[in-house]
Amino acid sequence: MTQEKQNGFLLTRKQYDRNGRCVFELWVKSDDGVHQLIIENEKAVCFAFESDKTEILALCQQAKLNIAFKDLELTSFDGQAVFGLYSESLKDYHRLRKLTEERRIELLEADIKPIDRYLMERFIQGELCFTGIEQLKSQSNSVKSVSVINHAQIKQGFYNPSFSTLSIDIECDEQGYLYSIGLHGTNIHNDKAIQISGAQSAGIEELDSQEPDIQTSGIQANCSESDSVEFVLYNGMQNDDEPVIKPDGLPDYTIWLDSEWELLLKFNQLVAELNPDLIIGWNFVKFDVRVLVNAAKRNGIKLKLGRDGSELEFIDGNRDGEQRYPDKVYIAGRVVLDGIEVMKNATYSFPSFSLNNVASQILGEQKLIQESAGDKLAEIKHLYQNDPTSLIKYNLQDCILVSKIFSKEKLVEFVITRTKLTGVELDRVGGSVAAFTNLYLPHAHRKGWVAPNLVSAQDYVNSPGGFVMDSIPGIHNDVLVFDFKSLYPSIMRTFNIDPVALLEARSLDVEHRIPGFRGGEFSRDKAILSSILDKLWQAREQAKADSNKVLSNAIKIIMNSFYGVLGSSGCRFYDTKLASSITMRGHWVLNQSKLWFEQKGLSVIYGDTDSVFVSLDDSKFKAEDAEQLGVELNNWFNQKIQQDFNLDNKMELEFETHFSPFFMPTIRGSESGSKKRYAGMKQHKNAEPELIFKGMETVRSDWTELAKTFQMKLFQLVFAKLDCDEYISSIISKLKKGEFDHLLIYRKRIRQHIASYVKTTPPHIKAARLANSQGNRELYRKGSSIEYIIGINGPKIDEPNLIPDYEHYIEKQIYPIAEAILAIYSPKTLKLFNQQLTLL
């Protein structure tokens, strides 16, 4: 029976061989459930230079590889003719790669996974449409029926998914022995799983798929919190085979089990019954999944969490005790999302990404056991043995906090949107290079080019970074900040900076080239990258007009990543001419802007990458002139770029902020102005002024709350032109009386192995070593965050009766902040400060 076309959204992808042929497995969510698409008779594809054809042919014959050769009208980036290599199986494909590498024969694009190429060349970016000949089959386990569709076909589609999520968190001892597993599900419902197989479609040279337009409406996912469920599985048997006493009155959501073995079996069963689309957690892959995998091995159990009953696949990124690669996990038909990684991809920034800190800042809620409350693990072990009810509530609360963060910040919508825009997997960590490749490579093929391999380390040349002007230090009365909207993407759009345009310019007359930097020149014909950016730019403008913050932010992140990708040795399209032509054009833009403002009689006191800081002091201009100044500079750039380059300007300057007053500090120990550090009172039209700090102690995680509190109040006094003497005297007096002891904690992350600190031992390492020694176990290690206080006997973890070294805090936390601004505002007050220091 021929099935009607359906639209769906891609959950997971996998490739493998079956009966000597390549198979692509796609799990897709659609309106009538989750479907397993098994696509057969596809080929693994790569390319090679025509000059190597004879040698590769002999190699394939000798190794009995089933590889087809095909002449193609494609050219390498260095101008050589290439041909295509098509393998029936992944086994032969990987064997070919190994043999050619051993003989130093270069293959092109061989590192692209065949399943990724298959989707990329069809412009499938999450959404797809599928059809085929249906054959129903029965299947065991929780899946009631299977629809096998032979001769299945897929193409671009349009679909807005509604995903169910299951938040999972584990509690265990230091050896990984499981105490409990918490689960909190939202939008949970049971889907019928459907299997589709037998797809067959064309090779690269026969494709005629068109790139999809960017959809700015209907792109948000429906991730309802309705139909929520909650469970905590509790292991009632301790690691020493002593049972935990089961108390009365356990929460209704508790499932009490008699062993770790039963705990894991029940976990398998619950995941299958709840059947979530997404599994979410916090530090989930690095910690929870790793512990679960080890516990399953220890108990002889397979974690059959896949929608087809298949086992969870875990790839450990540790090598010789070092985390050299990201840990990866694959569950058939279920996407695993780690909250920390998703938030980092979405450019969130926190002093600490601990669940307690993020939940506190976003939700105003905290974990039931505070991470700074002494020995957290000892507390959990105590609760496990003596107060199961409290540990059960704690475990579930962690799951709920993760669910709430995902919901409030629309993190699922973000990953869906990113996939719709770029085609990268929903669970992809990082992925800027993959996103660029997905968007760019199919167009390069259609223009007749095959991409190069990664540049070798010895051939890599660093490109200049963003331009940072020398600053004019001091307190300025009025400063206007002008910002170029997405400067680097707009430079790429204006000057046609593009890998293929760089190649095409080589054969053009000078008048048909656009000049770049470091020898870079670009074709004037509409380039691939500028076309992609134009679409993204228009989509973002529409998203902003529609108040779609998720889509707007996702597009901004993608566009801004393109410069970094082109300057990265991890991108196959890297060329120093590309990245340099972007950043050095940015230098030119800021310098031209500076000259323009100076010709107006204004002083440019600072500039950074895409922003210009203009002082109105001693000029005829007022803050009300800011918008008009921006319009005039845009008009000037329009004329200049047309006259000098015969191009349409796509850069746009915006007035961003009015600071009054504004402080630019000096570099410590120097009279030169600092960079990337300033403070100012931001003026709002219909609201109170807002004190803003950039790069100062207040916004840095390695300064104490005492320093941050002191700096905030001191700058408020200075900006209000008030006396500071009484405040400083009061702060020092209260500090010495112990009234600020709760504000003296330093927080640092341990970035190396503790034993590797030999020549110098920073305070946080001293505190960690002491805590490990006193606790007789490794409380702190590489990657740990530590909180400590500088006491009279050195750095230590906070403990009762610890006497802080107040002189240290005055000299290292209070005085540097005061000196930076009082040396300019009130040297007299600074002398008073020095007098108080001598009294200690």
Quickly describe the structure:
This protein is an alpha+beta fold and 840 residues long. The chain has four domains: 2-156, DNA Polymerase, chain B, domain 1 (DNA Polymerase, Chain A, domain 1, 2-Layer Sandwich), CATH 3.30.342; 165-190 and 220-409, 2-Layer Sandwich (Nucleotidyltransferase, domain 5), CATH 3.30.420; 454-521 and 570-679, B family DNA polymerase, palm domain (Palm domain of DNA polymerase, Alpha-Beta Complex), CATH 3.90.1600.10; 697-838, B family DNA polymerase, thumb domain (Topoisomerase I, Chain A, domain 4). It is globular.
Helices, strands, pairings?
Blueprint lengths: L1 E17 L2 E10 L2 E8 L3 E6 L3 H11 L3 E10 L4 E7 L2 H13 L4 E2 L5 H7 L6 E12 L6 E12 L8 E8 L5 E9 L6 E7 L29 E7 L18 E4 L2 H15 L3 E4 L2 H16 L13 E3 L2 E2 L2 E2 L4 E3 L4 E4 H7 L9 H9 L12 H11 L1 H21 L2 H12 L9 H15 L2 E2 L23 E3 L2 E6 L2 H9 L3 H6 L8 E3 L5 E3 L4 H18 L3 H18 L9 H24 L3 E6 L2 E5 L10 H20 L7 E12 L13 E5 L7 E5 L10 H15 L5 H12 L9 E4 L13 H13 L9 E7 L2 E3 L9 H20 L1 H12 L2
Parallel strand pairs: 3-12, 5-21, 10-15, 13-14, 15-20
Antiparallel strand pairs: 1-2, 1-8, 2-3, 4-6, 4-7, 5-6, 8-9, 10-11, 11-13, 16-19, 17-18, 22-28, 23-27, 23-28, 24-25, 26-27, 28-29, 29-30, 31-32, 32-33
Helix pairs in contact: 7-9, 8-9, 10-15, 11-15, 12-14, 12-16, 14-15, 18-21, 19-22, 21-22
